[in-house]
Design brief:
Number of helices: 2
Order of helices and strands: HEEEEEEEEEEEEEEEEEEEHEE
Helix content: under 10%
């Protein structure tokens, strides 16, 4: 089964920017405030604040320009978001792993939107480059306290890659792993069908590693058709981000075949945890491993 460009669109929306939540049709018959904010292990946090409009309007979302938006640890405010431009709210702050964060959005009409999430402690994963052999990159996982999403990106640039991937880098759509905690919800066949020397199941774009109480370290490998420069991202996700991403992918996958009658009766929703509105407030922590074509490693 081949995933369409819709998954690439979802990848870029969630990988490099804030998230967009699809609203069911019956909720678009009236105006709903939409908040999207995903905390990251970076020094600047971003937020989107819009208002949905009726389904027959000429556009789907209308920007909300005036609001008081705060981020707190329990009852202690750590900062307020400032609107810097069209649908662009920012806060200079680096989240602390393990802390419970509360988002509060007070609108001028008196409505208050709230949500909570935990900034996940990054799962401990090391690479074992000494035993790498095409098409495999090898790793050891030592902790699995939170779900982890794996993506592989390649760059055709002849320049030494930066520490993070760029929007023009290509997400590999056929990746494989032998990790025992891999979630098989988006597995389709085996990678051997595309890479003769591969020996792992084939996943589309993402590999989700389920959380688990590990008794011992787990060696595993990732396989794909690696490019000249490769970024492997391990994204340790909060429970909210994990639910959002998985339900988004499941809904997109279900709608790939528009001739299948099952989509006519699909009432599933993309996960949302915003009280008095919709959208997502979540968190993740990224770790990138960067390789070039001779297996040299540049990590952060």
């Amino acid at each position: 089964m081949k995933i369409s460009n819709w998954v690439l669109l979802l990848f870029f929306l969630t990988f490099f920017s804030s998230c967009v939540t699809n609203l069911p049709i019956n909720e678009l018959n009236y105006s709903v405030p939409v908040v999207n904010c995903v905390l990251t292990n970076d020094s600047i946090q971003r937020l989107s604040l819009t208002q949905s409009v009726k389904v027959n309007a000429s556009y789907i979302f209308k920007e909300i320009k005036d609001a008081a938006i705060t981020l707190s640890i329990h009852d202690s405010i750590v900062g307020s978001f400032t609107r810097l431009g069209y649908d662009n709210w920012q806060l200079k702050y680096t989240p602390q792993s393990g802390k419970i964060y509360c988002l509060k959005v007070a609108l001028t009409n008196g409505k208050v939107l709230t949500a909570t999430t935990v900034m996940p402690k990054r799962n401990l994963i090391h690479q074992t480059i000494a035993i790498d052999k095409y098409p495999s990159k090898n790793f050891i996982q030592y902790t699995a306290g939170f779900p982890c999403w794996i993506t592989v990106l390649t760059s055709d640039s002849l320049l030494l890659p930066t520490s993070r991937p760029k929007i023009k880098d290509i997400a590999r759509d056929e990746i494989g792993t032998n990790h025992p905690f891999a979630d098989r919800f988006n597995q389709y066949g085996n990678l051997l069908e595309f890479i003769p020397s591969a020996d792992t199941p084939k996943f589309n774009y993402y590999i989700r590693i389920k959380p688990d109480l590990m008794n011992d370290s787990i060696p595993f490998k990732l396989q794909t058709n690696y490019g000249f420069h490769t970024f492997i991202c391990f994204r340790t996700a909060s429970i909210e981000y994990d639910n959002y991403l998985k339900t988004s992918l499941q809904k997109i996958t279900m709608r790939l075949d528009d001739t299948d009658p099952i989509i006519w009766f699909d009432e599933s929703k993309v996960f949302s945890n915003i009280t008095n509105g919709t959208g997502i407030f979540a968190a993740y922590s990224d770790q990138f491993f960067n390789y070039n074509d001779d297996n040299s490693y540049f990590g952060n």
